[in-house]
C-alpha cells in the first residue's frame, strides 16, 4: 500500500488576482519540492474528481451550493467576501478540491491506499454550512469526513487542524456532532477570532499566543490533541493540513518549522495504526511562504509514505 497524492490541474487555474497570497504557485511549489526531494515517484498520483451535489450537501445547505454555482463568473472576478473571490476556473477548482477528499476516503477505505494527501485549492476549513470566507468556498475536509461517515458507514472520525487559523467552518459544521472529534492548534487572538468561547464537547482547541514555536506546538499536541484522539479511538483521521504556522510564513506569527510537521504526522500515524488501520486523509489548507510550504509538505508526505 502507498500514499495517494491527489490533485488536479483545475486547482491551478483558480486565481483571485493581483498579489493574493492564496495563489496558484502554491501547488507548483509543492510539486517542485516533492520532485526535488525524490519522493514524487513513491506516491500514487490521482486526479481529483468533481464532488457531486449530494456529497456537498452533506456539509452545506443546498441553497448555498446553488448560490455558488449561480455566482460563478464567465469573465473576470466575483468577490464572495473581502478575502475570497471566484474567477471562471474557480467553480471547477472548488468542486475538485472537495472531490479530492472524497476520492481520498474511497481509496483509503478500499485499501488501495494506506493514506492520502490532497494537494488542492481553494482551501476549505473556514467555509461554514452556508458561507464562504477566508479563501474557502466549500469545506473540503468536512465533505470528506461526512463521506466517510455517511457513505462508508464509519461511526467515529477525527479531524486534526494545525493550520495557523482556527477552522471555524469545520467547527460550524460539526459542533455537537458526537461522531466527530475536532482538535486544533491555532494562533489566538487572530483571524477568524473564534474557537475559544465555549466550544462544544467534541471540539478540543488549543489557542497559542503569537510567537509560539515548536515547543508550544508539541506540548499542545502531547497534552491535548493526542490524549483526546486516544480517548476517542477514531476509525479515520483527517488532517486540515495548513502550513501557515511556519516561522517563514508572514501570514501569521507562529514559529513552527517543517520538522514539527513530520513529528506531528508520526504521532497521528501511530494513532491511526492503533485504531484506524492506518487510515489518514490529509487536505491542504493554508501555507503561503512558498518554499516553506513545499518543504513542510515534503516532511509530512515522507512520514505518511513511510519513506
Ligand atoms: Zn490558515
Task: Give me the side-by-side strand order of the main sheet.
Answer: 2-1-5-10-9-6-7-8
User: What order do the SSEs take from the amino end to the carboxyl end, as H and E?
Assistant: EHEHHEEHEHEHEEHEHEH
Heterogens: zinc ion
Strand content: 15-25%
Averaged pLDDT: 98
Please characterize this protein's 3D structure.
By secondary structure, this protein is an alpha/beta fold. It has helices spanning 25-36, 53-56, 62-71, 90-110, 140-150, 168-174, 214-232, 258-275, 290-304, and strands spanning 2-7, 43-47, 78-81, 84-86, 113-118, 157-161, 180-187, 203-208, 236-241, 280-284. The protein has an eight-stranded parallel beta sheet with strand order 2-1-5-10-9-6-7-8, sandwiched between helices. A two-stranded antiparallel ribbon has the order 3-4. Helix 8 (258-275) links the parallel strand 9 (236-241) and strand 10. Helix 1 crosses helix 9 (290-304), helix 7 packs parallel to helix 8 and helix 8 runs parallel beside helix 9. The model has no long low-confidence stretch (mean pLDDT 98). The protein binds zinc ion. Residues 163-165, 242, 244, 285-286 line the site of zinc ion. Zinc ion is lined by residues 163-165, 242, 244, 285-286.
Amino acid at each position: 500500500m502507498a500514499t495517494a497524492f491527489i490533485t488536479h490541474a483545475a486547482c491551478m487555474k483558480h486565481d483571485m488576482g493581483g498579489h493574493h497570497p492564496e495563489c496558484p504557485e502554491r501547488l507548483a511549489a509543492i510539486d517542485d519540492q516533492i520532485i526535488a526531494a525524490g519522493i514524487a515517484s513513491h506516491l500514487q498520483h490521482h486526479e481529483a474528481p468533481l464532488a457531486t451535489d449530494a456529497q456537498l450537501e452533506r456539509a452545506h445547505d443546498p441553497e448555498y451550493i446553488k448560490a455558488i454555482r449561480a455566482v460563478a463568473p464567465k469573465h473576470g472576478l466575483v468577490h464572495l467576501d473581502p478575502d475570497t473571490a471566484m474567477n471562471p476556473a474557480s467553480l471547477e477548482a472548488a468542486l475538485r478540491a472537495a472531490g479530492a477528499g472524497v476520492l481520498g476516503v474511497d481509496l483509503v477505505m478500499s485499501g488501495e491506499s494506506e493514506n492520502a494527501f490532497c494537494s488542492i485549492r481553494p482551501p476549505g476549513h473556514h467555509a461554514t454550512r452556508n458561507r464562504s470566507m477566508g479563501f474557502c468556498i466549500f469545506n473540503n475536509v468536512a465533505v470528506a469526513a461526512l463521506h466517510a461517515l455517511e457513505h462508508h458507514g464509519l461511526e467515529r472520525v477525527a479531524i486534526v487542524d494545525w493550520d495557523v487559523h482556527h477552522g471555524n467552518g469545520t467547527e460550524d459544521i460539526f459542533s455537537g456532532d458526537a461522531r466527530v472529534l475536532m482538535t486544533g492548534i491555532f494562533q489566538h487572538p487572530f483571524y477568524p477570532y473564534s474557537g475559544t468561547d465555549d466550544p462544544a464537547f467534541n471540539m478540543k482547541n488549543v489557542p497559542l499566543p503569537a510567537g509560539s514555536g515548536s515547543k508550544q506546538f508539541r506540548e499542545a499536541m502531547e497534552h491535548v490533541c493526542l490524549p483526546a484522539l486516544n480517548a476517542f479511538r477514531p476509525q479515520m483521521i483527517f488532517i486540515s493540513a495548513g502550513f501557515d504556522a511556519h516561522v517563514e510564513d508572514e501570514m501569521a506569527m507562529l514559529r513552527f518549522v517543517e520538522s514539527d510537521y513530520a513529528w506531528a504526522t508520526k504521532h497521528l500515524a501511530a494513532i491511526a495504526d492503533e485504531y484506524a488501520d492506518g487510515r489518514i486523509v490529509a487536505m491542504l489548507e493554508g501555507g503561503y511562504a512558498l518554499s516553506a510550504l513545499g518543504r513542510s509538505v515534503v516532511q509530512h508526505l515522507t512520514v505518511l509514505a513511510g519513506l
